[in-house]
What does this fold into?
Amino acid sequence: MKHLVYVTLVALVWSGTVSAQEGPLPTVHKVRNYLPHMTVPEVQDLLTRSDMVIIPVASLEQHGLHLPIGTDYLNGVERAKLIAQQADVLVAPILLPGQSPYHMGFAGTVTLPSTLIQEVYVEAARSLMRHGFKRFLILNSHGGNAAITRFIVDRINQETEGIAVDLGSVLGPFRQRVAARPEQDAGPPVLDRHGGTSETSNSMYLIPELVDLEAAVTAELTLPPHLERILPQVLAGDPTALAVFLAEGLKDEATGKGTSAAEMTSTGVWGVRDPRESTAERGRAATESMVTAAVAFIERWNELRPPGTGGR
It folds into this structure.
């Protein structure tokens, strides 16, 4: 009898242990309004309250020795999720890769043609329209996708029943209401762009588990001489110098400009600041500024055009 009781107790404990076991990988925590986590009834329920979607336009590209290949995708999606916790909108990630041919000299980068990228996003928007979503906030999280993002917005507006805006381009007036972000440093301005302290700080706040700051080293840069000459004017804030600098800088090796990432930087980071100067606090301030401005824009759009109004 005692043996039977013992076996029964062991079976009950084992049963409870098995049922409480987690999956073989880190636990996935469900996020509200995040399409990959939602069920059909949850999408239908959201449609009773909102017809708005945030679609991040991202990339899958090298970000130096210390940041993940998916930095742009992951940070863009995390920002969109944060917006959706305050504003009742859908977050619908569509593609990981973007247009990044100038990073192909570093292992892991995946790049797609601009025509293919915009076609995928427009068709994805059409799918969401079929279900009842009408308004689209296109959130570009990779600088090289700027023109593609504008084209996606224009195609949705010109070719479909949907209504789209480039979220980054409409936040200016709403950012003015938000406290200024902390200064980068007290020293003179230096080149600090791709994979630099801004992206690293954002990643330390949004995806800290994926940042390996111990692996970071200061990049050695080799700019073409004519770009080196105008760099001081770029750093001084001359908009014309910046436009000319970016028109040539960070371009596909096949263009012959000599400005692909592998041709200009030893680590993949396009900047001379030490990424280890980055802070999660700076990333938090930048993220909260952007999210607060985005929520304010969404609220204003809903005032001007409440869900369910307008055309057919």
User: Anything to note?
Assistant: The domain at 30-181+283-304 is CATH 3.40.50.10310 (Rossmann fold). The first strand starts at residue 52 and ends at 57. The beta strands are 52-57, 90-91, 135-140, 163-166.
